[in-house]
């Protein structure tokens, strides 16, 4: 039998992960979630006491999950202080207390059983998020306030004692707080619980979000599935469905004919942040995330399947920008704060016909309630969406796990509601809306391509000043989409 030895300070605190009900000499019976103070160990066993009833005994190592703690040795006996945040400890103790009452409600078939169960599930989920350590400061603070509000509401619902807190949700220490301050805090807590019982937390949250000044919309492109067979440009932007116009710059994603992003270094990092959104932008009636797909190749889509008899013919028909289709998804609920969870969405793709205008197809897709399987045939975009709050500098600091140095930034077109100091922009947005061209000597309509360059007063080309969208380098010349045999595009 191995000898017993004292454990190190970092292993003196643990939580039972299984019930230990074995009878025997010196055995310490434990229930799931019970915490223990560990003093000694051998190969398979710990020796210590339960922090709940101070009963001493031995228990298997495999039944215990060791947690980080602080050992206080200033008094006559060492004390264990968990390193978990106070809100996590409070949620843990509340769930244990509610759990015992919850069982009684089940036995008595009380209607409060379902209500308490839902509250406990929410607290468990919030506790998991807090302990993950990945939440930014603002989101952690907000989640803490929601958790304490839920605890107070549940205690009031069960008729338990009211916990007196300050305005930040921290429990007041009665040893250093005057009776008058405790009474005022008690009154404020009572009124707060009544308000929560009569109003929805979601409504309060949406009002809070709309009162902030600057917001950003974060998009991660997971995959794009489409049978093109040629290179393509994917142009993503935010679109106001009521006004019928784009409100942000484009995010340009170069897609290769092999079905992958052209820049393989960005393969798992296709991210864009649409910034400068104000509170009025969040309250727009209809907001969409749209993606226009531009095929780059031959004039006719079927040309790629046939061999050319002449090298000059093949060369002249390559590199043409042709409309291929659109993908659109309504994001109004996300903008209004009704959907806060970051999850993956599928945006169906609809291909346009040879003579379809891409704007007309977009309006048709937005007008239809749902794109059917027959229309999209399993083709489309897979994206993750999340609404962030704060300007570009703030979201970079608070969401470093989302906003990386390679994340593209698409700004709002026009002036934001709040112009921050040092924010200098010299942008000229050019939209070619339509044109009219004569047939000339031809019997059929022409294929029209418009090219745009920037020149100085001497007519000399100014290089690298034209941008098709963020995420890609600037270019010298822009070439428009070509519509097949259409002299009035």
UniProtKB/TrEMBL annotation:
Record-annotated C2 DOCK-type domain positions: 425-489
Presence of the UniProt keyword Cytoplasm in the record: yes
Matching InterPro entries: C2_DOCK-type_domain, C2_domain_sf, DOCK, DOCK_N, DOCK_N_sub1, SH3-like_dom_sf, SH3_domain
Domain of life of the native organism: Eukaryota
GO BP terms in the entry: cell migration; myoblast fusion; small GTPase-mediated signal transduction
Pfam families: DOCK-C2 (PF14429), DOCK_N (PF16172), SH3_2 (PF07653)
Protein name: Dedicator of cytokinesis protein 1
